[in-house]
Every structure is written in structure tokens, then in C-alpha cells.
Amino acid sequence: MRARRAQASPVTVLTPIVPGERDALESYLTGLSDAPGGSPLARVPGTHFARWVILPDLVTDPKQPAPDPLGSPHLLFTSNVDGSADDYLAAVADTLTAEAPEIWGRCVGCPRPATGAGLARYLRHNAIGTGLFFAAYPRATVQAVTAALDVHDRLVRLLVDTQPAGPAAIRAAFLKEFRP
Amino acid sequence: MTVSEPGTAVGTATGTGAGNIDGQAIAITVFSTVKWWGKHWLPLLFTTLRLIPPLTRDLRKLSFIHFARWTLIRELPANGDTAPRTRLRYPHLFFESNFNDGWEEYIDAFSYVLTRGMSLFWASSYGFPGALPTGPFKDYIHRNELEAAHYYSAYPEATATMVRKALALAPAVADFAERAVRLSPAEFEGAWSAFLTDAQDLL
């Protein structure tokens, strides 16, 4: 199955966790939110939204005839990215050089060291195609979104700051802020 | 015209675990086991919706969604002797969404706006109680949902509506700036007023 062609792409990678490593992996991932400098995913260009999820097992609904065990916990990584999934996974492998060994280094089959081209191949191997992808603004890159939000904020600030001012002062303030 | 300070939060991310929240953004991650006929039905549904985008019009009405996806997982890749290629006993439907505001409001809106669509996506999943009433459906989602160990948004304080408006506003501001450099202060006054009138819905 192929995802809808657009600027934005979905990335889904599902990897089995090495037996006995689940708790350490979960502890490391939950600690990333408090890491100095914020989420390491902020360093991977083109990341709109992303997540790591520990999948202990597949859901067994009371109404399904038999369980469908995964065999071992898996790590789910998903991201909503600019450009192609392959390029993005290469960027992940090249950028998260400190974090990837702590994350996918705890997964079955991951190359050692868990960085660079070897890691990118591993992630591509474990990537899962998307059936249907919805993007509210599919052609806007992360850079375009953040730049547009910045323009919005600067314009609103200018409006607040110049509310009592006359046209000459507003023009001067506007051109100071937005002169091409 | 009334304007608010930039960066002012419009809503508050609520109703889910802390791991699913980054600023205004909320992650939802749901797996469900699919009945035998879903392995044929869901790929057909996905293909139809990809080829005929107007059919996703109702989804676009849900203005608080940034990105969402549905994936049918039927097998897992091999990773050496300890994790051979696994053909799953059942197909599994993986759904994720990135949205803003509250979890409860999200499910409510999904159920009321996409009542028919929800059945198209989940009727082939074991245990799906129907989109309405929302109570049993919320219980179903809770049972099938996983909390993220780490969740990241590149613009955590922006709602999807804020992003869409900003993306429309930015080129309008750039166009006006091009014109403004050639306007006298007197000419600027009228042009500025017209610009703000046109842009007021984007602020």
C-alpha cells in the first residue's frame, strides 16, 4: 500500500525489543521529555509530529476467537515528516547518534553501532506502509509552518503595540517589522 | 478589531495521559484486531479515499486534526533468528492522530461528524460498538489505546486552526509589505485598513 503523494509523508517503524530491555527502553524514552535542550526529535529536520510507543502486545478483544500474541514487546516509532520516508529515516540515523543506540540499540536485529547507514537500512527494513494518510496542510514544511506562525505572532504584537498610534507610526512600525 | 497576545493558548490539551501531550498537541495511538473480511475491505476503502479526495471532506471538517493515519498490519518484518518474519493470525488496524484540545471533545466530534465514516473504518474490528452513543465508543478506544513513551510536536503551542490561518496570513503580509514601501502615510492608512479587514479572520 502506498501513502498519498504529498509534501508531507507518514513514517511508521515497528521493531521487536530485545528480551529484558523493555523497562530500560521505556525509562529512557519517558526521560527524553525532560532532557536538556528538549526532545531530540527537534534536531531531526522535517519532523512535524512524532512519537515512540511501547507496544507490549497486540490487543485481544473479548470477541475475537483467539489471541494473536506478538511474541515480544515491540517499539513503534511514527513521524509526520517533510519529503520522503526514506530520506527522513536517513536523517534520523545521521542525527540521533547519541540517542539511537539507547533506543533502537535495544531492538532485535539492530546493527552495532546503531547509527548511520546501517541504522537507516534497519529502520527502512522495519518500516510499515500507510494505508491512508490525512494531513491538514500537506504541502507546508515545518520551516514554512514555524515561519508563518512567527509572522502571525509578530503582526499581532504590532497590532497590540500600535493600537493608539496614527497611520505614520503604524506604517513605520510595520515596515520595520516586515520590510521585504 | 480585537486581537489577543501572540502565543495565547486557545484550548487546553486534556483527557489523556501525560505521555500523549506536548503543549496543545495530543497523540492518540489505537490498535484493533480486524475480522477476516477487513483485510479486503480496508485496503479497498483506503484506495477509494485516496483516489477520491472529496470523500474525506467530513474529515477536513474536523479542524483540530493536524495529521492522522490508518494502517492495516498483516505481518511483521523478520529480524534474524530471534524474530523471524511473522504472519499475524489476524490483520490489525493501527490508527494514530495528532490533534489539539481535549481527548473527550475529539472523540465526540469524531463520532458525531464522522458517524458513517467511523463505521467504514472500524466496523471490521472486533468489539467496535458503533460511533454512537459516544460512551461505549470511548470505552472501546480507551481499551485499545496506548500511551506514548515520548511525543513531540515541532510547534506545540499552535492548534491546527492556528497553523492553517498563519499559512494563509504569511503571504498576505508579504504582499502587503511589498506594496506598503511605495505608499505615503496617507495612502497607507486606507490600504492598512483594507488589509486588516481582509486579514481579520486570519488573526
The largest beta-sheet of chain A arranges its strands as 1-3-2
Number of domains of chain B: 2
> How far is it from the N-terminal to the C-terminal residue of chain B, by CA?
10 Å
Number of domains of chain A: 2
The level 1 CATH classification of the largest domain in chain B is Alpha Beta
Side by side, the strands of the main sheet of chain B go 1-2-4-3
- Which CATH architecture of the largest domain in chain A? 2-Layer Sandwich
Q: Per the principal axes of the C-alpha atoms, what is the gross shape of chain B?
A: elongated
CATH topology of the largest domain in chain B: Alpha-Beta Plaits
Judged by helices, strands and strand pairing, the structural class of chain B is: alpha+beta
For the largest beta-sheet of chain A, the strand count, sense and barrel status come to: 3 strands, antiparallel
Helical coverage of chain B, percent range: 40-55%
Largest sheet of chain B: 4 strands, antiparallel
The proportion of residues forming helix of chain A, as a percent range, comes to: 25-40%
Low-confidence stretches of chain A: 1-6
Unreliable stretches of chain B (pLDDT < 50, length at least 5) are 1-11
Number of helices of chain A: 6
Strand content of chain A: 15-25%
**Assembly status:** heterodimer
Order of H and E elements of chain B: EEHHEEHHHEHH
Radius of gyration of chain A: 22 Å
